[in-house]
Amino acid sequence: MAKRKSEWFEWVKALLIAFALAFIVRTFFFAPIVVDGPSMMPTLHDGDQMIVNKFLYDIQEPERFDVVVFHASDKKDFIKRIIGLPGEHVAVENNVLYIDGKKVKEPFLAEAKKEMMSYQPYTEDFQLEDLPGGHETIPEDHVLVLGDNRNNSTDSRILGLVSLEQIVGKTSLIYWPFERMQILEE
């Protein structure tokens, strides 16, 4: 009888340790997210399941074109691409991205722009001053984010700039559906 209690106790202890480790990993290091909606098409599809790296920005700064998850509100997280970094001026004119007045290529949009530009602009013209907040440059500890589906995305053009505190983490691994499994390229 004592042996059975000891064995049962060991199983309970192992399960508790496993749950504790899973909780710690999910809370502080990695978490799953499901893409909700078309705002990141063609890069991400509605229903894609991804892993968010929650600790990366504790050891390095966000970079242009990182795909990030951020708290858009208390109840909703969004997934978008970082376009502008602190201290920069961002504008789009005639479907061309300008950072501090210099053209910047967006290779992840090349195909989509080709398809759509024949009948409408892929990204409506804007400049940083036109966005909520009216900033001339992106303030410290903030970034400008845009969805890859520029005509159907709630992003910095509507929400304003995103503070680094709002960012949950970077995501680049699609793990489901299986046929879309991939690591996103910049």
From TrEMBL:
Belongs to the peptidase S26 family. It comes from Virgibacillus kekensis. CDD domains: S26_SPase_I. This is Signal peptidase I. Residues 8-176 form the Peptidase S26 domain. Its main location: membrane. It catalyses: Cleavage of hydrophobic, N-terminal signal or leader sequences from secreted and periplasmic proteins. Its EC number is 3.4.21.89. The keyword Hydrolase applies. SUPFAM superfamilies: LexA/Signal peptidase.
